[in-house]
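The material for today's practical consists of a large collection of protein records. A record pairs a protein's sequence with a compact description of its fold. Instead of coordinates, the fold is spelled out as a row of discrete tokens. We will come back to this pairing of sequence and fold again and again. Here is such a record, shown just as it appears in the course material.
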Amino acid sequence: MSHLRAGLKTPTTLRVTRGLQETAGIAVHCRPDALTGRVFKQALKSICRNAAILGALSLVLGSARAGEPAAPQTAFLPRTFDAETRNGEIVGWEGQTRRVFVTRGTNEFFFVVPQRMRVEVTPDKVALVSGDATYFLTFRILSPGNADAGREFLVNQFPNAKVVDEFSRTAAGQNGPALELRYQAAGGMERAVWVALIPSTAGLLEFCLNADPPKAADGQLAFNSLLRTFRSNENGKLEITTRVLDQS
């Protein structure tokens, strides 16, 4: 990671200790388990149920022959990585630039944290939470699987969801499938979700936005910003480009 620090004289690691209690009661389906150490109570209650869903994916993504035991599910499982948040340049009225740096083996990534979002890091996920807790973004690295199975994986994270649209998204020069969904969270609250799978040598990169529908537009701006600023060392040395304020 030494070369990542080029241009950052005093990289600062931020440790975020605040939990996501403001969003308690919203099921975290961008990843089928709890979000952070101090987490959604409803998500904690659903861990066992979601573990069963992952086990059932062996039937959805590749059924075993009749009479034979199902093969262990190895595709689309979360992979661990190292991640830290560092302060960068100050950009006009936007203020301090923050970047999240992710490392898994020789694979390195970073992205700019959208303004006014809180960062929470666990061993296999980065979560970005809006200031008013009405939407959040998540990033994960998953074990590889084929494209058709990938769509089924996305749908099966939200068993009762309605697929609104299917399209593609781009990050770090790679394209992948994406879905827009709607589902009912605990208590009947409607949630809007955008989730994409981008191929990478580290595995499949999962980007997800989960939002209150009235705040979906704000969430999409943050989601698009994350994808637009996402960088990888897959095609060469990872370099930081100093941001400047867009005057257009």
Observations:
- The two ends are 34 Å apart (CA to CA).
- The helical segments are 41-45, 47-61, 147-156, 216-229.
